[in-house]
Amino acid sequence: MKSVKLVLLAVVGVFVVVLVYQNRDLLTDTYSLRLNLVFKEYRTGEILLSMYFVAFFLVGLLVSYFYGLSSQFKAKKERRNCLEKISKLEEEIKVLKSVPIQEESTPSHETGTVQPS
């Protein structure tokens, strides 16, 4: 399985290198972002388009990290609740095992009398 992951990672890496090399003219262009509000206009300086790609990629990584982090906290809380329930049920089993069993009386079909079983 490790070799499959390594080969897949190598293929993706080669693909990214080819993609960047073939589009280097586009990635080296500079652009500025502009935000035009009614009362004020904001403009960034000239930034390489590749820096925008990197910045938005990192923002996506952060968003997915925090989403995964919240899922981790939920799973940890659920695990703790399940462990508490298991320990309570195990204690209940211990209590039930320590209670003596009482014999039930069952009617005899032949004589009609009640006999202990």
Structural summary, described in words:
- This protein has 3 helices and 6 strands.
- A hairpin with a 6-residue loop joins strand 5 (105-107) and strand 6.
- It starts with a helix and ends with a strand.
- Helices cover 64% and strands 14% of the residues.
- The protein has helices spanning 2-22, 24-27, 49-98, and strands spanning 30-31, 34-36, 41-43, 47-48, 105-107, 114-116.
- It has 117 residues and is an alpha+beta fold.
- The protein has one domain.
- The strands form 3 sheets. Strands 1-4 form a two-stranded antiparallel ribbon. A two-stranded antiparallel sheet has the order 2-3. The protein has a two-stranded antiparallel ribbon with strand order 5-6.
Percent in helix? 55-70%
H/E series: HHEEEEHEE
Overall strand count: 6
Number of domain units:
1
Biggest sheet, in brief?
Answer: 2 strands, antiparallel
Radius of gyration (Å): 35 Å
Strand residue content: 5-15%
Classification by helices and strands: alpha+beta
Regarding quaternary structure, what we see is single chain
Low-confidence stretches: none
Principal-axes geometry comes out as: elongated
Between the first and last Cα atoms, what is the distance in angstroms?
A: 60 Å
Number of helices: 3
Strand line-up in the sheet with most strands: 1-4
Mean pLDDT: 87
